[in-house]
Amino acid sequence: MQSVTGSLQAAHVLAASLQPAAAPGGGGGGKAAEVASKLDPVQLVLHASIPVKAVLVVLVVFSLCCWVVIGAKFLHLRRARAESHRFLKTFDAATNFDSMAHGLSAFRGSPFARIFATGYDEMMRMTGGQRQRLGEAEGTHVETATRRAAAREVTHLESWMTLLGTIGSTAPFIGLFGTVYGIMDAFLSIGNQQNANLPVVAPKIAEALIATAIGLVAAIPSVMAYNYFARRVQELADSLEGFAADVAARAKLGGI
């Protein structure tokens, strides 16, 4: 009888030794699996706190506005450069202002054409519609008018670029606010639950870092586009100032 009991005890010991070892902490494996299933970026955004959601909405709107402005400004500058190139070729080949003025409708997108139109209109107003040399006062007036027209064209070329600069400079700080709030919320959860395990802090920190990432996604294209457009506008601005002076000088000679 004792031998049978000993055999049964040995069998129970052997069976227990063959069972897989339990994970430390009892249900830690289940909690880790639960955290892994919840750490999805979409779910984190959907279940984020209200301030973090507000930050994310603002940053998404900034990003959409940034790309809309980039597309519109790129098309604007490309058209302005293309039509200005054609206009300058025609302007250099024209014998007088009268012949050039008749074909201005073909260069509606050129800032150079609008400067010429301003100078031509002022010249004709000063001379009463006659082609003749301008006096010193009339010539100064035409020159001032063409310079003002050039300044207006530069301002028009720079339109909406301030929005790109604003997004590029503020989006990282808005994202940083969302990050700080998310980390603060994580520490509050640790304090309230008296528990610093990964399932408690991981979702809060993850949603905070998502705010930072979206802030950079909105800011980086804005800064790059702003620098690119600013360089292109400056190139055109330098040419516009020289062209305004050229139009004024030729207008003083009667538009020849």
TrEMBL record:
Keywords: Cell membrane, Membrane, Protein transport, Transmembrane, Transmembrane helix, Transport. It is a multi-pass membrane protein. Residues 111-241 form the MotA/TolQ/ExbB proton channel domain. The chain crosses the membrane at residues 56-76, 162-188, 208-229. It is found in: Cell membrane; Membrane. Belongs to the exbB/tolQ family. This is MotA/TolQ/ExbB proton channel family protein.
